[in-house]
Design goal:
- The complex is a heterodimer of chains A (386) and B (264).
- In chain A, helix 1 runs parallel beside helix 10, helix 3 runs antiparallel to helix 4 and helix 4 crosses helix 10.
- Chain A is of the alpha+beta class and 386 residues long.
- In chain A, strands 6-7-5-15-16-17-14-18 form an eight-stranded mixed β-sheet.
- Chain A is 29% helix and 25% strand.
- Chain B is α/β, with parallel strands linked by helices and 264 residues long.
- Chain B has a single domain, classed as Aldolase class I (TIM Barrel), CATH 3.20.20.
- Helix content of chain B is 38%, strand content 15%.
- Chain B is globular, with a radius of gyration of 21 Å.
- Classes of the chains: A alpha+beta (386), B alpha/beta (264).
- At the A-B interface, helix 6 and strand 14 of A face helix 1 and helix 2 of B.
């Protein structure tokens, strides 16, 4: 890592390993800024394997910060604002991919203490500007979400929160990349080195002025302290239920949410299991997910399960993102369960490093040793190259 | 003060605080909390991590790095067969014959199934395991677990994750009076004062997870519990005074000059 990262000429050739959310966003921002970009991904663009494809696309800085700390709130609020701007830049179709209706937290009457716990956990956060948490009673709940089961009598409305139609968004982003200055290499499994991206199968080497490694869990082989955290989701389809915003069910042992998607679809997520297991969804997890959604609105009983997703969230020891740079290579990884929420902060920071604009408010956050109290090096939060 | 060590299955420990490794914000926070707790034994659950494929390895590495004695648990198992299989897998993965045996009988409050627990204990002890059973506070169950070969008992204070403290003091005291083996209050504690109370009763150690992991500052809460556990232990060793029915002044008041002065 160096403060004197060499400045690139405006027509520099940049290689990006990984066409997940970070890779695609960076390819778009960099090509728009005039750079030549080559984007590599192990999967095909029509059948993406990235965590961003599996994700539910919530932009929930308050709920996420309650579990993950104040840094996530700061970066998340920044992300919310940035997404609105970016989606407008991406065009009128993309601009409809964000829904700013807030999100709703509910608990069964016997678990109402979970709502109080949430209020306690967000006590400090509520002093932050724009952090609105409103307690709502049954009449108001029904007005907000008429299809929600009547058994819920209390809830919390987090009005600043939003959600994205993430698959449509990824598609719009992809369309932006069909420019002459962007080359796409799909079905190409690669490794990333300073100034070079190497095809793992053919050993072919592509050289660049700069390489960005955004491979998520795919970078495990070089980042010894990066781990994958399994998440499982169910995709449902039904015309019998309409939800206007994501609803989170607070339960003593798990928190599950349901996010409305276009075409009468819903994503229920997500389990969080400390394992790099990518085998299909377990029965236990599908029971937890489906019973949660069934209690939220019994009309989901006849919904069709159209997909069961399994993927790994890339995470460092502190579960916060990290960006490191050295001549010829920038690594951005570890967005964990906050991909869409934190991507704008990470992308703008990377752009800042590349363009020497010194505008990123997150430099210290990504570059600090992340408060790791441990003296052992191989599991600290900074990426460690093997 | 002379050394006051905890001995479990022949291994000695200076800390009487056993801590769980689940539910933290991040592995880093878990490690900071273990470090602040001074715990020398940590528990870990494998049930949902597909342990046979070793897919949890990068996370387990964080737990190994705490340097603590590992106590794999069978959390999430609901039958004898599941628990025995998982214990065998844990023994291979972590090279330890210790197991915190949990067999859950009720899904909602995670109450142990005493019948399945006893059966699984007998089976695992016959296979050479050192079983630390998570049990209810039932005297007869505890007797049968000891007869089966358990050298430690771990009765609950309250159901897992409830933070309600010692719900049945009478039963917990009865266990202390009846058993000489180490007793660990496992589960249900929410506040350090509750841990201190268990130690004052003469319990040998305390095991918990949620109360620390779900605190707003887990490392600080870990430190708070460590202090309470130490205090409670010292109070037990020092010998608590007996409570009395009526207040008795520590010095006789009659005949003492100026005794009305305290009113002014």
């Amino acid at each position: 890592m160096t403060a004197s990262f060499p400045k690139l000429t405006s027509d520099a050739n940049i290689g990006i390993a990984g066409a997940g959310l970070l890779g695609k966003l960076l390819a778009w921002r960099l090509s728009t800024a005039g750079f030549r970009v080559s984007l590599f991904d192990a999967a095909s663009m029509s059948n993406p394997q990235c965590a961003a494809h599996t994700a539910a696309g919530m932009l929930a800085p308050i709920s996420e910060a309650a579990e993950s700390g104040p840094e996530v709130y700061t970066m998340g609020v920044y992300g919310l604002e940035r997404w609105s701007q970016w989606l407008n830049e991406l065009g009128t179709n993309a601009a409809t991919c964000i829904h700013q209706n807030g999100s709703l937290l509910v608990a069964h009457p016997q678990d109402e203490n979970e709502l109080h716990q949430f209020l306690a956990d967000t006590h400090k956060l509520r002093a932050e500007p724009g952090c609105s948490i409103q307690q709502v009673q049954s009449a108001e709940l029904q007005q907000l979400e008429p299809d929600l089961s009547r058994q819920f009598q209390k809830g919390l409305l987090l009005s600043p929160e939003a959600h994205l139609d993430n698959r449509q968004l990824l598609q719009h982003l992809h369309e932006q990349l069909s420019l002459p200055q962007v080359s796409i290499y799909e079905n190409t499994s690669v490794s990333a080195e300073p100034f070079c991206i190497k095809n793992k199968n053919t050993a072919e080497r592509h050289t660049f002025d700069l390489v960005l490694d955004c491979r998520g869990v795919g970078a495990r082989e070089t980042l010894a302290n990066l781990r994958g955290v399994r998440g499982e989701t169910l995709h449902l389809e039904t015309t019998e239920v309409i939800l206007n915003r994501p609803v989170r069910l607070m339960h003593p042992r798990y928190q599950l949410y349901i996010v409305p998607k276009p075409d009468h679809r819903f994503v229920i997520g997500a389990t969080q299991i400390e394992s790099e297991d990518t085998s299909p969804i377990s029965l236990q997890s599908s029971l937890e997910l489906s019973s949660a959604v069934y209690t939220l609105a019994p009309a989901f009983a006849e919904a069709r399960i159209v997909e069961a997703g399994v993927n790994l969230r890339p995470a460092f020891a502190n579960n916060l993102p990290s960006v490191t740079d050295q001549p010829g290579l920038i690594t951005a990884n570890g967005l964990y369960r906050h991909g869409y929420l934190l991507a704008p902060a990470v992308v703008d920071h990377v752009m800042d490093v590349i363009q020497h604009t010194c505008q990123s408010p997150f430099g210290t956050l990504f570059k600090s040793p992340n408060n790791c109290s441990s003296n052992t090096t191989n599991l600290s939060s900074e990426p460690v190259y093997e | 003060m002379q050394s006051d060590e905890l001995t479990l299955y022949g291994k000695t420990f200076t800390s009487r605080f056993l801590l769980g490794t689940a539910l933290y914000e991040s592995p880093e926070q878990m490690r900071d909390s273990v470090s602040a707790s001074g715990a020398e034994i940590v528990t870990l659950g494998l049930r949902r991590q597909n342990p046979s494929a070793g897919d949890g390895e990068r996370f387990w590495q964080h737990i190994r790095e705490t340097g603590c004695t590992l106590l794999p648990n069978t959390a999430g198992c609901k039958s004898v067969k599941e628990a025995v299989n998982l214990a065998q897998m844990s023994r291979e993965l972590f090279d330890t014959d210790w197991v915190k045996l949990e067999v859950i009988g009720d899904d909602y409050n995670l109450q142990p199934d005493p019948f399945a627990l006893l059966e699984a204990t007998q089976e695992l002890i016959s296979q050479g395991f050192k079983v630390l059973p998570y049990c209810t506070d039932d005297l007869i169950l505890c007797q049968k677990l000891v007869e089966a070969g358990c050298q430690v008992l771990m009765p609950w204070g309250a159901p897992i994750g409830t933070g309600r403290g010692l719900l049945n003091r009478y039963a917990l005291k009865a266990l202390r009076e009846r058993f000489n083996c180490p007793l660990v209050v496992d589960a249900g504690l929410g506040a350090p004062s509750q841990a201190a109370e268990a130690m004052e009763m003469g319990y040998d150690a305390v095991l918990l997870n949620t109360a620390v992991a779900k605190a707003q500052n887990p490392p600080l809460m870990a430190k708070a519990f460590a202090g309470a556990i130490k205090s409670g232990r010292e109070a037990y060793l020092a010998g608590l005074m007996q409570t009395r029915q009526t207040a008795s002044p520590s010095t006789p008041t009659i005949g003492q000059p100026f005794w009305h002065q305290q009113k002014t």
